[in-house]
Amino acid sequence: MAALNGLLRAGAAVRRPTAAARRWISSLASSEADTRVAASLARQAMPGRRDPGSRNVQWVFLGCPGVGKGTYASRLSQLLGVPHIATGDLVREELASSGLLAQQLADTVNQGKLVSDEIIIDLLSKRLENGEAKGESGFILDGFPRTIRQAEILEGVTDIDLVVNLKLREDVLLAKCLGRRICSQCGKNFNVASINIKGENGRPGMFMAPLPPPAQCISKLFTRADDTEEVVKERLRIYHETSQPVEEFYRSRGKLLEFDLPGGIPESWPKLLQVLNLEDHDDKQSAAA
Fold first, then answer.
1. Could you confirm whether 224 is annotated as catalytic?
2. Any catalytic annotation for residue 251?
C-alpha cells in the first residue's frame, strides 16, 4: 500500500517532459499522427492549468474487452475530476460517422481484429487536441496503450502514475459480452446476462446481477455487431497475445496494479476504491460494464 500511495501522490505533481524526451519522441514517431498525439500528450502533462487542490492524475486502465474498463475508468474520472478517454468510444464514434475511415473500421471490428496503431493514434490525437482546447489537464486512458509501440510513445512524453489491470475469468467475460445491449435512443449500455457461477475445486464462485434498462429503453435495445461468440472469443485470443508485453512493460517499471474483479459493480467498486486508497462519498450512480 505504501508503494501505491507514493504513486497516487505523484499524480498531484505531474512532471513536465524534458527537452531530451521531446527529441526522443520526435525520432520515435514514424508518422504525422504519432507526432500529433505525442505533442498533445506532452502539453496535457504540463502543470499549472488546474486548481492546485485537484489531483491531476495520469492513469491507464488495461483489461480484456468487456471486463469493465469503461465503467470503472468513467467512475474514477468523475471522482477525481479528470477526463476519461476511451479509444473504443473513439472508434465507435468514427464508425457512426460518414468519414472515410468508417467502412475500413467496420470491416476490422466486425471480424474481431484489432484496429491498427496508425488509426488509433490518429483518433487519439484528435481527441487530445480537442480536450486541450477546452483546458483539460490530466487523464484516465482506457484502451491505450495496447502495444509496446504505443506504450513507448506514451512513456516518452509523460509520466504515467499508475496502470490498473482489471482481470476477470474468461467464461464470465464471454457471458458479459454476449449480454451487452445498447439503447438506440439514449445511447446507454445495459446488460441482460445474469451470471451465477458456483465455486468448485477451490475456485471461488462469481455472481453478477443483470443491469436492466428502464421501461422506455426496452423496445430500443440492440446488440453490437461484434458481440457474437465467435468474434468475442477471437477478440480475447488476440488481446491475450498482445497484452502480455504491455503488462510486463509497466510491471518492470513498478506501475502495474493487478485487480481481480470479485463480482459485479456493487462488489468490485468498493474494493477497487480501497486498494486505490480513495473514498466515494456519493456512490449512488448506476453504470454498465
1. yes
2. no
